[in-house]
Design goal:
heterodimer; A: mainly beta; six-stranded mixed beta sheet; globular; B: 112 residues; mainly beta
């Protein structure tokens, strides 16, 4: 069985603060993929990043960065200098053996 | 623009009525999926398809049927709608190899 846990249901930060969204996963497979998706208030779901289980290199894309640690089964997402446009629900997902499991999401509110 | 198109965007059904949701993608993706999104429950997989003419059950398939007669289209049918099927439905597609989903804009379905 596989599982994705996003323990933070809702987070509020003031604009320009840094914020980290946690994602912890469980799987018995050695080959798997991890994803983050963003769902802004408009409702669409947008792919942000994909990481495979053999690549633990952290990734940075502008104000976004991702920290993948197999030792703790975590794939955390950090937004630096948050902006109001970052307000959204963020989903972490795990794909293994063609089965994809989503976490229940973290709602991020950035207050101006 | 390339992507995934869902129709309709909104629909209200009476209990017992039937309807079909259409998903069309123009990216030549092999895999297609239907998810439902309910508050506090994240995204749950209804049915999926790994190629033209093939479909398989997901996590919550009861009350739904699907067909993929053409590679670019994936239809979701509700034969006899129930209030428990009130939800937001998302279609997604991806190329073979777990590269991450491209989602449609969603269909908000209310069953009264």
């Amino acid at each position: 069985a596989q599982k994705v846990t996003q323990a933070q249901t809702e987070i509020s930060v003031v604009e320009k603060e840094d914020v980290t969204l946690d994602c912890v996963y469980e799987t018995r497979d050695t080959t798997y993929y991890l994803f983050w998706y963003k769902q802004p208030p408009s409702g669409e779901l947008v792919f942000l990043i994909r990481r495979n289980s053999f690549d633990e290199q952290n990734e940075i894309s502008g104000r976004y960065s991702w920290n993948f640690q197999k030792s703790t089964s975590s794939f955390n997402f950090t937004i630096t200098a948050s902006q109001v446009v970052d307000s959204a629900v963020y989903f972490c997902a795990l794909s293994a053996y063609q089965k994809v499991t989503f976490g229940t999401g973290t709602k991020l509110q950035v207050i101006p | 623009n390339a992507g995934v198109t869902q129709t309709p965007k909104f629909r209200v059904l009476k209990t017992g009525q039937s309807m079909t949701l259409l998903c069309a993608q123009d990216m030549n993706h092999e895999y297609m999926y239907w998810y439902r999104q309910d508050p506090g429950m994240g995204l749950r997989l209804i049915h999926y398809s790994v190629g033209e003419g093939t479909t398989a059950k997901g996590e919550v398939p009861d009350g739904y049927n699907v067909s993929r007669l053409k590679k670019q289209n994936f239809l979701l049918g509700l034969e006899s709608a129930a209030p428990s099927q009130t939800s937001v439905y998302f279609c997604a597609s991806e190329p073979r190899g777990a590269y991450g989903y491209t989602f449609g804009s969603g269909t908000r379905l209310t069953v009264v």
